[in-house]
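For the sake of clarity, the format in which proteins appear in this thesis is described at this point. The fold follows as a row of integers, each naming the local backbone shape at the matching residue. One such record is shown here in full, so that the layout can be seen directly:
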Amino acid sequence: MSDLPRKAVTRTAKLAALPLSFAGRATWGLGKRIGGKSAEIVARELQQRTADQLFRVLGELKGGAMKLGQALSVFESALPEEVAGPYRAALTKLQEAAPPMPSRTVHSVLEERLGAEWRELFLEFEDKPSAAASIGQVHRAVWHDGRQVAVKVQYPGAGDALLSDLAQLSRFARLLGPLVPGMDIKPLITELRDRVAEELDYSLEAEAQRQHAAEFADDPDVVVPDVVHQCEQVLVTEWIEGIPLAEIITDGTPEQRDRAGQLLARFLFSGPARTGLLHADPHPGNFRLLPAADGGEGEWRLGVLDFGTVDRLPGGLPDTIGTCLRMTLEGEAETVYELLCAEGFVKETIELEPDAVLEYLLPIIEPAEVDAFTFTRGWIRAQAARIADVRSPAYQLGKQLNLPPSYLLIHRVTLSTIGVLCQLNATVRLRDELESWLPGFLPEDDGEDDAAVVEVQA
């Protein structure tokens, strides 16, 4: 039997207790203030206790609760420092590890899926997991042909747990709002629910990973391990050594941070152009920094893991993104507004001032305006504060913009990647990657189709 707490009443009780605990701690904090402690000290203690319990529960439950925690973890850099401090350690724990499932459960799944003689497929198999995530955990092993492999084993009952957790979490999503200023948590939870079936299907993950592995097989900068074997609830892939990106964030050198940031941006924009797929789970636990291919002192490479969530973009990223970005940088307010209207970012019932829209967008795209940009927590905090301040014009305008369903995952992946770049404090030549991989960003890419869209809209 799995140790994944999957009985609906048990999981619901754990999650439902969180709002009550938050309220209880608020009462405790009031008592501390009456007792003489300053508001600042009490607030900090409250944040620490809240973070500790929230993310301990998310990690213990795995499933959708931990999935949400991982999705939120890449946004910690947007939090004001006085709030981010207590949350940072708890958030980053979710990027790399979770309580493991017992060996007996792992063996049971492998026997059921690979057969009674499953051990004969491996020369070695480590019972202690090397990593644990929201729906499965990874074990290091040696395949029968001598290859070092990673064996991903899905938690029994993971599907039910995911749906149950996310349904429960959506009921008190507003309580999680302060974790990421300016971000509505409920649509994020809804989008995660929509992806459950796909992520549980290891055959889809294997297909996406094979496509990436084939495309990046000879790439000097990006390494994607190939698929060795796949069946229901079990996925075996090549093992890659490397430094987890979470370690680069905490202890990396400036050179490692910049290199990791550059390659992360390159992979984000080149992947859809080269494979027709967008890797849609860009939290640090899914990336490694690897030594140069020749083992020398050359530049580091980026190892990419976990293709369970992808966005299928047969034509690559939409041309409208690149065209709007370029037109915004050029100050073409009317053209940008017309393109946004045509794509559904501005609903037909809404009328906005094009210059105000341009003013709203320009600070966000500052990294694309210069040759090299240093992504910092301070910069992303300023953006979050500008958009979240109910008194600001940016807040009022942002409320009137719409995010079309076809752009939802692209938007989340882009924001998540920017969050990781800010955690890395990386200096990145983002414009180079946009010019190389983003359709419509260069003037010669701006074809007749875009002109026709503007003409029709006008």
